[in-house]
Amino acid sequence: MAERTVVIVGMTGSMGSQALEVIKKMGSFRVLAGTYHSSFEKAQMLAKEYGVEKLICTKNGSEELEGFLEENMPDIVLVCIPGFASLPVTLKALLTSKRVLLASKEALVCGGWLVRETKEETSCELIPLDSEHSAVMQLYEPSVEKILLTSSGGALRDWKLEDLDKARPEDVLKHPVWKMGKRITIDSATMVNKGFEVLEACELFQLRASQVEVLIHREGLVHAAVFLKDGTVKMHLGFPDMRIPIAYGLTYPDRRYEHRNWPSLIGTQLEFQQVEREHYPAFYLAYEIENDYAKRTAYNAADEVCVEAFLRGQIKFTDIARVVEKIVERIEGTPRDLRDLKDIDEESRKLAEEVIEWL
Ligand code: MG
Known about the structure:
The protein is an alpha/beta fold. It contains 14 helices and 10 strands.
């Protein structure tokens, strides 16, 4: 197999470094560049270990990265950076490569239509790395009527409603299934992360939010299911290991990764539970703002500000949903391009900070 060239945006994060591991294990890829934000030492260490040819710092913006992509036109770009910043990078990657592997939900949450339009202009493939969406992609058929995404329910899933406002950051950072970054772990406990994933699925598979069901599934084995017109239900089972969807995205439509570390399924039970609205109010917001990109951008921005404030001990866990809801309600607009979205993102952040100050 011919060697494929790869650029990893967000190399020092958990997804980025797992991608390097997978690439090394499978061979036949050349990592042209990896970006880092502030972890220079880690970037250097990874570059040495995995033979990454160039390091690009994105702390002061993505200009150097965008220039590099234009010049080098890599085969594959992995977008693994969190937040709104993933949107412009995803758009550029779609224009300069053959395949974009997208780990960042925010690009589709905030600018889904821009991503779709840009993808249509080019012949670039867009493959999700999110485990649930990778699962749907593997199950997908044109006769899909409805899909199911599963959720662990996060670290506070067994807490009583009246205790939720006492949750401390250290309680919330204990995720029951996955090991991930801080924001996404908090977002799992509020299930805002799953709200993002509902919107992400709508963009990727051209569904309405009402066709995307979410259930809590504690075993963490079923990632997704598709319900087909003829009554067939297909489920995707997998172990909670991000290296598997990363490898699938890199080698699609082939499967070259060898995992072979199968635990036994004997005695395994699969259970699915309703997502309680009172426990996860911020999750249900996603369904209300499906068709409004201004509010979707506000949803992401306000949540990010709130998560930081919660981690600093400035607000209570339950304030996250309250503030996010307030900001989403207040922000209005009809964004037409990236610049409009940037303005809405900034406005939402400012407003969220003000609301937090007044709490
Ligand atoms: Mg996910």
